[in-house]
Amino acid sequence: MKIYEITDPEFAAYGRILEGVDLTGMVEALKKTPCPEDGTIYVPGDPELEKLPEASEIQSKLYGELPVQIGYCNGHNHKLNALEYHRSSELNLGADEFYLILGKQTDIASDGTFDTSTCKVFRAPAGVPIEVFATTLHYAPCNKKKEGFRVLVVLPKGTNTELSGTHSGGEDGHLTAVNKWLLGHPEGGLPEGSPMGLVGENLTVE
Prior knowledge:
Order of helices and strands: EEHEHHEEEEEEEEEEEE
Strand content: 25-35%
Low-confidence stretches: none
Oligomer: single chain
Mean pLDDT: 97
């Protein structure tokens, strides 16, 4: 697949580079978080990250004082496997370079399927914070370097936590966690019963 840079004009439809905030301390702390050699780990909120001075600046300037959780997604991954979206933007910041396979929510068909051939891949260099728009389909980052990736994930507080109710039918049936709608790929290795929806190739970043 063609790989775009987040500085390319194509990225404007999916997100933007965030300016006006210095998150150097957050990057240094992120480097100390665990990075599994096989697979990925996702922590919605990490107390060590959330107590840093930059945390209040993120909440104030980038989320308009909305309560947020600051966690991370670390590890090794090369496959798309699924796509998800939220009703809110997501902040990502890498301690290492990482790659995002992105799609558009507006390209989800009326039957709830999404053709993976419409996705684009973007490289984000280390230390550059980005906003991934709420209408952007995304999932776990990918890596090309053997060291893997460590990526900060900031979302409204409670996102990706356990649901309290039952959800089924239509879009509601794709809600797999709080503020998380999922479209899985049949070859994505997701837990049994996960909602599907992706058609086409399970894309790979190598």
